[in-house]
Amino acid sequence: MSHLFEELDYAVTPIGALSLRRRRDLRLGVDVFEIKLGDEFLMTSHFTASEVALGRLGVAACHGGALDVVVGGLGLGYTAQAVLEHAAVHELLVVEFLAPVIEWHEGGILPMGRALAENPRCRLVHGDFFAMAASEAGFDAGQPGRLFDAVLVDIDHTPELALDARSDSFYQPAGLAALRRHIKPNGIFGLWSDARTDQGFLDRLSQAFPQAWAEPVTFHNPLTDRPFTQTVYLARNGSGAGA
User: Fold this and answer.
1) Among 36, 47, 73, 80, which residue carries the largest CB count within 10 Å?
2) What is the pLDDT of residues 112-160, one digit of tens each?
3) Lateral strand order in the sheet of 67-72
4) HSE on the CB side for 240, CA within 13 Å?
5) Domain total in the chain
């Protein structure tokens, strides 16, 4: 059996103290991995249904094959892993602002080991997703202006509850429209949120994209022993320039 509690890593980052913890849940008989930023929980392996749903729903909504996908936010890797389940995905770029998180995957200390770091279809990129989304160059430094079939984001808690000020303008119509420039015609934008559907954000998303909708994801929360609902927002780009 594992130690009841162990801090696997601790690092000071530009947005606060980051820690990776593993603890034993004696009630369920499993090891739980948790990422914290300061006093806030960023992610737990206790429940990952909506992170997985973001990857699966986002890719399923795409058209065609040989898909190029961006995931903003690496975390424990469940969204990226779900994207790579699809044989139609040609290349996945995962943009992560916190360098230690990439190092955890490269070092294999997380539940999925080095699966993402060693997958030839996956590239882990250290960078600021929000700055890239607002830029002309976009997400691939080797191919400035490159377009993607899907851009899926799991960084902030909700559109209204951000980790820091970097994303202040991203969730507004102008910020979303800037991101849209990096998505192919008919391509998909997806966003994870730790809350039920926010109609205000869905309205803003509809201002930036021709089509937008929300997919509630309800799962059993073992911490409260009750159902809990989070949201995956999806939007489709137009069929051509100016659409």
Assistant:
1) 80
2) 999 999 999 999 999 999 999 999 999 999 999 999 999 999 999 999 9
3) 122-126, 89-96, 67-72, 148-153, 183-193, 226-236, 211-221
4) 0
5) 1
Q: Is residue 162 part of a domain?
A: yes
Closest CA to 71 of 152, 179, 165: 152
What is the 8-class DSSP label of residue 65?
S
Q: Which amino acid is at 230?
A: Q
Residue 113: which CATH number? 3.40.50.150
Structural domain boundaries enclosing 68: 47-236
Q: Which pLDDT score, from 0 to 100, does residue 240 have?
A: 66
Tokens 């990439």 belong to which residue?
102
Q: Is residue 175 part of a domain?
A: yes
Tens digit of pLDDT for each residue in 159-211? 999 998 899 899 999 999 999 999 999 999 999 999 999 999 999 999 999 99
Q: Is the pLDDT of residue 71 over 70?
A: yes
Residue 153 and residue 119 in contact, taking contact as beta carbons nearer than 8 Å: no
Q: What SS3 state is found at 190?
A: strand
